[in-house]
Specification:
- With about 130 residues, this protein is of the alpha+beta class.
- The chain folds into two domains: about 1-85, no CATH class; about 85-129, no CATH class.
- It is about 40% helix and about 10% strand.
- The strands form two sheets. It has a two-stranded antiparallel sheet. Strands 3-4 form a two-stranded parallel sheet.
- Strand 1 (about 35-40) and strand 2 (about 40-45) form a beta hairpin.
- It is elongated.
């Protein structure tokens, strides 16, 4: 429960990850296993199973760890806010995605298996309502 609460309260997810609920959910679910509770405190581990430390030598806080973990993904930047066009200059009908971007309807995305959803997100697919 401590890990779930830490991820739910994450300023990194709230402020840095795209406002697309699929992206926010993906970050929470994909990286949940990178966090464990030790001595009543949420501690982050990298993909190699090593505890993550900050520049001060102390274990990373949840937001710092999430930033590092997302940035380590090959397409991690596509999960972050501001990584695609939006507003009046965006291509029409693509949910704010730039021209040529892969766009999938939410109903199509929901019909995919979890593994296929992860693959789609990693490949940079944008979800449109």
């Amino acid at each position: 429960m401590l890990v779930d609460r830490a991820l739910a309260d994450s300023a990194f997810i709230r402020d840095k990850v795209s406002k697309d609920p699929i992206h926010q959910s993906y970050v929470r679910e994909h990286f949940r296993s990178a966090f464990r509770v030790e001595d009543g405190r949420v501690v982050a581990f990298d993909s190699g199973g090593q505890k993550m430390f900050g520049t001060d030598g102390q274990p990373c806080d949840v937001d710092t760890a999430l930033a590092r973990l997302v940035n380590a993904l090959p397409n991690g930047q596509s999960l972050l806010a501001g990584s695609t066009a939006s507003g009046s200059g965006a291509a029409a009908g693509t949910g704010g995605a730039p021209a040529g971007a892969k766009v999938m309807r939410l109903s199509q995305f929901d019909a995919l298996s979890p593994a296929e959803q992860m693959k789609a997100i990693k490949s940079g697919v944008r979800i449109a309502e």
